[in-house]
Amino acid sequence: MAKLVHVAVGVIVNTDGKILIAKRPLSAHQGGLWEFPGGKVDAGETIEQALVRELHEELAIDVLASQPLIQIRHHYPDKSVLLDVHKITEFLGAPIGNEGQPIQWVDAKELNNFEFPAANRPIISAINLPERYAITGAYLDGADFMARLNRVLMAGIRIVQLRIADFSVDTHESLLDETIQAVTQSNALLVINCSLAEFNRLTQLFTGKKIGLHLNRHHASAINVRPVRQDVLLGVSCHNEEEIVHAQKIGADYLLLSPLLPTASHPSADLLGWQSFSALVELANIPVYALGGVGEEHIKIARSCGAQGVAGISAWW
Which of 19, 45, 156, 273 sits in a 20 to 30 Å window from 205, CA-based? Predict the structure, then answer.
């Protein structure tokens, strides 16, 4: 295997919430593509020190504060890279292409319209995914469901997974319609936990609506290629190393990793705990949410383990 090149990457966010990207010179590896600024970590440097040095050299800015976003290992045919990606939350100066490279401020949702190296794609997912992920649970009737959903959205949750036992488009069409409207009006993301067959029927019925797919371990194991277009958000539920590897093979954009801590619904489940969770997150080159007995109070520790954030039913539903 080729030597692993350790790279510090900065996702620089301005006061308008836009992201800075730069174009690689044609002579460079993956030349001509857009990227998030950064560079190699020198011997003896911390990630933070490398970011300060590289971003001053490349953009003439001084980094004041940053926080980890995601860590990615990627193997190209000619080299392997370890990307330590940090979100730059505070800096001094107005960025310029200090080495002659074109730079551009871009809305986060528009990043997919630019051509990036393959290793950068998960960074875009991490930028656009929030740290709180709500999953729907039990409800009495349609009115109760919508009341619960609206409370979730009013709490500021910006991604919701619709998970209903024995889900079918025929049975739940009316509820789906109301859910899509409510989530869209809140500028949130909606993913449906269902089979691929049901999802295909759903997208035909709700043409033009932005809806993602979430696969459980059984539905995911039945396929070997990405089942949806690149612009459709794809998530997979995982519980071990084998399932994480397979989820990435089929092109998942994010993972739910469980069960982490004790829950009333699964009192006898084999739990991961934070140490095993952290080790499994290292295997994932895409955003990971902690699931199982977690809520708002666990976001900080989940992030320290390399996770995107936490997912839950009872925490918000």
Answer: 156
CA 8 to chain centre: 19
Spatial distance between the Cα atoms of 211 and 221, rounded to a whole number of angstroms? 22
Handedness of CA 300, 302, 306, 310 (dihedral sign): negative
Q: Helix 169-185 to helix 142-154 angle, to the nearest 10 degrees?
A: 30
List residues bridging with 85 in a β-sheet: 9, 70
Kindly report the CA angle at 56 between 54 and 57, in degrees rounded to 5?
65
Tokens linked to 8? 């510090």
The continuous run of DSSP H or E covering 312 comes out as: strand 309-312
Q: pLDDT confidence of 2, banded at 50, 70, 90?
A: low
Q: Please, what are the domains in the chain? A: 4-120 (3.90.79.10), 132-312 (3.20.20.70)
Given a contact cutoff of 8 angstroms between Cβ atoms, the answer to whether 20 and 95 are in contact is yes
Structural contact between residues 271 and 259, judged by C-beta atoms closer than 8 angstroms: yes
Q: How far is CA 113 from CA 15, 34, 94, 109, in A?
A: 22, 11, 24, 9
**Per-residue pLDDT tens for 101-112?**
999 999 999 998
Residue 167: which residues within 8 A CB-CB, separation 6 or more?
A: 192, 193, 194, 198
Residue 294 burial by CB count (10 A; 0-12/13-18/19+): exposed, middle or buried?
A: buried
**How does DSSP assign 21-89, residue by residue?**
EEEPPTTSTTTTSEE--EEEPPTT--HHHHHHHHHHHHH--EEEEEEEEEEEEEE-SS-EEEEEEEEEE
Q: How confident is the model at residue 79 (pLDDT cuts 50, 70, 90)?
A: confident
pLDDT digits (tens, 9 = 90+) for 277-289: 999 999 999 999 9
Measured at the CA of 240, the angle between CA 158 and CA 74, to 5 degrees, comes to 75
Where would I find the H helices in 206-240?
Answer: 217-221
Spatial distance between the Cα atoms of 183 and 158, rounded to a whole number of angstroms: 8
